[in-house]
Design brief:
It is a single chain. Helix content is 16%, strand content 27%. With 79 residues, it is of the alpha+beta class. The protein has a domain of 50 residues.
Amino acid sequence: MPIQKTSALPPEGLPVYRILTGPDDARFCHRVSDALSLGYRLHGSPAATFDGKNVIVAQAIIWPSALVAPRSKKTRRAS
């Protein structure tokens, strides 16, 4: 898979951090795949629970520019 250069912000005004949730089905997998094709990256491990009827899954995703650590400000010490 070729490396895709992404812009500083996600498209269409989407937030840099998102958590996708839903039943563990093909629709959920397509939602995650669509986000990855936009340029989002998986953030952490998926989670799953059972609501008594369905397995419900969650996956956090993050825009790559949010992963860049901000530069720390150097403080001047009095001499």
